[in-house]
Amino acid sequence: MNETVNNRFLRMRAWPLGLMLLAAALLWVFAAAPAQAQYPDFAKLAKDNAPAVVNINTVTKGRPVGPGSAPRMPNLPPGPLGDMFRDFFEQMPQQPHQPPRSRPARSLGSGFIISEDGYVLTNAHVVRGADEVTVRMSDQKEYQAELIGEDERTDIALLKIDAEGLPTVEMGDSDEVEVGEWVLAIGAPFGLDHSATHGIVSAIGRDLPNENYVPFIQTDAPVNPGNSGGPLINADGEVIGVNSQIYTSSGGYMGISFAIPMNVAMNVADQLRESGSVSRGYLGVVIQPVTAELARSFGLDDTRGALVAQVQPDTPAEKAGLESGDIITKFNGKLVKRSGQLPMLVGAAPVGEAATLTVLREDKEKQIEVVLDELDASMAGGGALSKFGLTVAPLEKASRAEMGVRYGLEVELIDGNSPFAGALQVGDVLLEVNRRPMRGSEDLAQALTSAPADRPVAIRLLRRGQPLFLAVDLDGENVAP
Is 125 a catalytic residue? Predict the structure, then answer.
């Protein structure tokens, strides 16, 4: 044994000096590698957080189907001929000999406990329209949950279960999230409870189409249907986001997922807990991005800021003196790097309090104070829509569930001089206008006031339950289905 060791020592002494120095250097590099270059302890992160992650099951009462229910209306063309056949089908009596059957719809999602007394955070789309919500814990204990409130604009819902001393997650500061840091997602993909996946933060501050109030965190952590509402956790074990959306063409994970930043989610949750609803600031401008060409035309070195394309009448923006052509570069001291950031900053600001805008006007920086109105209580909808002779109202939750839609505006009144008088009908449900989802009257006002003047407005709607596209010229001329 000693002879073998001595032989090895003699062979090492025979190594070239340069090779020995290289080996020593490599040992030093690996020994001195910084801790942050190593993988997080994902097993510990999952173990510590799993007890506070829950599975959410919902049941929505089904619509009548089968014998005894109303006959299924076929797809009919728009126009007088289609209307005649629709009237025929609507007047057909139900078959009285058998009672209608109903088929409940079930869905699965995720959530997590944010307080020891039973408040649970999840996505609004997980519980939307549900008649029953059941929360299942990691130990398989189940609770019936009460929906405290939901906010469609951020896709956040707050639930309450009757329990005390529950395990909770640790909150993180989503404003401190950086691209490249490790994250862990826990949820119930396809109903498989407490699955954990990991990845990195791919991007921050993503302003997605149709989502104006959430600066999403983009990750490559595998997230699938059922993960919605689950936590996104950083390497320190803190929840920095609520998993909400995926980019997919197949229904499954394709390498891109999006989470609602925790600071945004908790702001909404606090308001829902206090009042059951969410209040947002409203400025009253139509904005657009500052392109490279526009930046050169304004004499700017970069494309930061939000360009004011229009100031709507009788709004906080008009009262404060904002003008078309102003470029808003800061809101309450926070940089506006992209136009999509401005609605998020304004929406999160307190209503009725003064906010400071930094704008560029004629090559000079200017400070403007503005007192924000409340978004849904503002004149954005009513004032602008009265110009177009329309009165609309958001669909109630029960109506949305019955129609199978996430949002919509029902047409209640059309003025005889309205450009829509020959196209829309009372009772129509507007789903999208110029590809903008119709969640509230202000969405319709924004879509119409910012519509290009050189082409008709594209409208996607439901009429008597049937989908339909219309193109309407706001000058009151051409109307084409």
Answer: yes
